[in-house]
Amino acid sequence: MSCEMVVENPNRTEQLISELASVWEASVKATHMFLNERDIIALRSFVETGIKEVDNLIVAYENQKPIGFMGIAQGKIEMLFLEPACIGKGIGKNLVTKAIQEHEVSYVDVNEQNPHAVDFYKRFGFVVYERTEFDEQGNSFPILKMKLR
Predict the structure, then answer these.
(1) What pLDDT, on the 0 to 100 scale, is given for residue 3?
(2) Start and end of every N-acetyltransferase domain (predicted)?
(3) Which domains does the chain have, with CATH numbers?
């Protein structure tokens, strides 16, 4: 898969939000092995709200279908998820590069139990500066707070 188009701050219709939440769900099922089905169901509404409300939403498309998205707020990547078939194809790299260069991003939070994501951000120069025992919802999923060197 390749990314044909990137759209910043598209009209956040209910259809787009649902499609992006489905991208999120497929992505976490492929990469967040520490989450069970109950966790994913519980988190989906939180993710949908995040998609609706994040300051800057950037969506990657292929054949007019969303294949990935990134949310940015106040210099921080709040979310970055790709269809599993798109992982490792350079789309995430392009989105993060765009975030750093065009949106002056210097922070990201990553689940400690997702070492591939931690390594991904380290390749851009992000380093861990803090660890929390719980995620934003109070679940016992440790978070690594990372900042750009």
Answers:
(1) 60
(2) 15-149
(3) 5-148 (3.40.630.30)
Segments in 32-131 forming alpha helices (H)? 37-53, 91-103, 115-122
Residue bearing tokens 């998205």: 69
Helix, strand, coil percent values for the chain (each to nearest 5):
40, 30, 30
42 forms bridges with which residues in the sheet? none
Q: Is the pLDDT of residue 83 over 90?
A: yes
Q: Give the three-class secondary structure for 107.
A: strand
Q: Which has the closest alpha carbon to 77: 7, 20, 146, 127?
A: 146
The pTM for the full model equals 0.91
